[in-house]
Each structure stands twice: as structure tokens, then as C-alpha cells.
Amino acid sequence: MKDKMYSNISDVEIPGEIEYNDLSETEKDTITKALHRGVTRREFMTWLMATGVTVASAGSIFTSAKTAMAETPKRGGKLRWAADLHGPTDTMDPMMATSSIDYTRHRAHYNSLVQLNEKVIPQPELAEEFSSNADATEYTFKIRKDVVFHDGSKLTADDVVWSMQRHLGKESKSVAKPLVAGVKEWKKVDSHTVKAILSSPNADLATILGVFQFKIVKKDTTDWQKPPGTGPFTLKEFKPGVRALHERNKNYWREGPNIDVFETTGITDSVARVNALLSGDVQLIINVDPKAIKQVESTKGVHISSIPSGKYMGICCMTNTAPGNNLDFVMALKLLQRRKRVVKSILKKQGTLGNDHPINIAYPDHCDTLAQRQFDPDKAKFHLKKSGITQAEIQVAEVAPGITDTVLMMQREADKIGLKLDIKRVPNDGYWGAIWMKTPLNVTTWNSRPTANSMLSIAFAPDAPWNDTLWNNARLGELLTAVRVVKDPVKRKEMYCEMQTIVSNECGMIIPAHLNYVDGISDKVKGIPWVPLGDIGASEFPEFVWLA
CA angle, corner 150, sides to 147 and 152, nearest 5? Predict the structure, then answer.
């Protein structure tokens, strides 16, 4: 039997008349995700009553929902899904992955040592067992002995050590290098056992290794057009910026996958992407435009999945050049954000307020004492005058739903205080290679990360390769390293609050809002694991999904 990752809650025996099949697809989807997540009875009853379902009716819904979840997956068929971004920088090298389209291709092709469940807790994958010593300075991973690569060679400790060492050292090009900066080396113990030796304690390492970039590849791989993997699908075709075609791995080490063919493509135009879903050309899409949600919900055979998260849209003011190197100019833009209106009107309530740092309420280490920044045009005008800047240009692609409209709203407010903000619209295709981190003002989007430390380390640390604004703050770097050894929850919260305050007040990043993961899904698609760290369950779906 296939390893089971996702827990269900216990049965609730409450008589009622409403049946599971009487609910809308959105309600069914919400119930299924709640059951998968292990939600408490109290939480679930609260949701039921909030949606107008009486407690007396809940029992049959529970029973029917759990029955639906327990359906035996059907084998066969082809699933085609569409991302919102693709281009010539698409890659099959996991350590260089930068987008949902990369993450999903890699999940189909590779495995990691661990995988994260819906509570973001690491579970065994290629490592059948893993543990740490008492002070979390040494981790041991026992590797499965029945795993073979797509070329027929056996997975050994040598492949794991080689894959992990690629992320270490000054010469490493890994975009996830800051997440494992505390690892001194990976050592082979025997043919199927490896150790990670750390320079300082890090209780989060096992969780971090569930992040997208830490897939295991075959030792000495150089051809990233046809790399051998151990994943549920083999790679038949890979054309960057066009598509990837995967076929069932008949020698997969777990039972599965359920589908025969898995095709990945990108449709950058949001209207065209929704139309592809509604016409049946694709069965899954990510980043549904908020303006199209009602259209999807009113169309038979498809539905919306919306999961609150730490994902965010961002406006990047590059701090290595004007005007982003002027803190007063950046603060003026931060004070011009109409955050409540962005969430309500632009995102259609599919999001939460941003506060110019990435650690929102989705993270346990969120600082709830940091005051929410308010729209304040008078203060914005004060800072703008102090900056001496009267004109600027921002380059915008729709890299996140609503980001273009958010920038247009900022432009209107800027005009009122004497700032001429020109907007240059650019295509999504090739955006990450040509515009992001290269022009003075641009936009960005980020998925959630499993921990606050990993999010801050990969995008805000002084040496982070994905530091969007090239902002360098030594104090933040010190705190990110120091907090990894802190066990006292009070002290830990103080340190994370200081970090979030520093980013909010001093960084060139503006975060108007955090986004729900809003995906469009055919009713025929079943079995998606809902890990809250990325689009379509953090790209975990290829192995487990099936078609009704």
C-alpha cells in the first residue's frame, strides 16, 4: 500500500438530514481539506455554522465527506495543468527552481529526503528514518534500499551526499543556499546512511529539507534536459517555456502514481488560463484572477480552491540604486498602500493585509504586537518631500493576481501627493530573468515557506541570492543565525518581532497584501494533498492525484 501522509479526524455521530452531495463543490472541497488537515471538532462545527449548516445536520456531512475521501483512486488517464509563468529560465535542476511550474515538474520527476504534510510536519520519503542528536547539531538519515533512478541505477548514500553538498559553499549557485548555511558538511556513514553535520544547532533542518529545491538527483548529473530522477514520473519531453511531458514510472518505489500521463504547461494570460479550464483544455490552473472567481464558481464541472497563506505580492524598490536607495521615498510608497481596499476590492477578499514584511499570521512566529501600517497620505507627502523625488518608473507584470491593479491604485495616490509614477507594463514571459532584481522598481511574488526563518533567510538575509531589493542589513543576518539555537519561546518571539520590525521599516520591499492560494480545478480531479505552502497544495499533487 502507498504510504499515507494525511490524517483524518474521528467520526462525529450527529444525526441530520443534509447530505454531502447536497453541498456545492466549494463546500465539499473545504470539508475535504479540513478533514485532511486534522481540524478539531470545535473548529469544524464553527465552520459549519458560519456557512449556514446547522449542528444537527453535521453528522451526515461528516460521514459522507469521509466516505468520499475514502474512495479508491482510479488508475489511468492524462492530467494537464497550467501555471501562470514560464519561460526560457524553466529548469529541471532542482537547486535552481524559482517558480510553481518548476516545483511541480520536479515533484513529478524527483523525491526529497522528507516531504511535508498538511500540518507542515516532515514525513519520511527517500529517508525511511531520520533523527537528530540532543542539541540538533547532527542529523542522521537512513535511505531506502528499494529505490532506483529512472535509468535503472540504484539510489545510494553517494547520490544523497552529492545532491546535498551542491547547496553548500561560496561557489554554490543554489537559490536555497541560505536555508542550509549552518550545515558544515554531509557525510556518508554507509551505503544507505548519511549524516548532516551542523556548525550550530538548527531544530528546523528536517522541515527545511522539505522545501522545493532539496530534491535528490543522481550523482554527477550534468545533463539537465534529461536528468535521471526517482520520482513517480519519467520525463519524456522538456521544452523550457513550452511544456514538459511526463509518463508513469512503472518501477516507482511506492504504489503510484495514479495517472498515466502528466503534462505541464504555462498560460501567462489570466483570462486565457481561466478559459482553458472552463473549456476542459486543462484540468488545473493556478492563480485564478480574483475577477474571474464568480465565473469559475458559476460554471458546471469546475470549482475554486482557496487556501489562506503567507504567500504575498510585493513591490520592490532596489536599494542599490535610485530611487530605492532613498528610505524616505520607499516609506512614502509604503504609506500610500490602501491595503484594506486591495484585499476587499482587488483580491475579492481572497487575501489578508500586508505589513511590509513576509511573516504574517500563517507563521507561528508572526509578531502580533507590531502595529499594522495604515494608509496615510499626509505622512507619505512628508516623506516624499524629504526625499526630493518627484518622478519614477515601475515595471509591472501580473506575477501575482491583482498586482497590476494594486500598482495602478498606488499610482493614483502618488499623483495626489506630487509623485509622477510611470507604469511600464511588461509580459510575464521571461520576467524573472529580464526584469526582476534588474530594474530600479519592479514587482514580485513569493510562496509561503515552512518556517519564518527559512522565509527570511531565502529572501531578506544579506547573502540571500533571492534578496529582491538587494537590501543588506547586518542586524537581521545576526538575528537569523542566533535565533536558531534559542529554545525559550519568549526570547524567540522577541527576536522574531525585532526582525519583522526591521524589515517593515527599513527594507525596500513593500507588501500590500498576502494572497490565498486560489486555484481552479475540474470536479473530476481528486486526491490533491493540501499543503499550505504553494499553489495546488505546494505542488505535492502529481503523485497522488487521480481522475474520477
Answer: 70
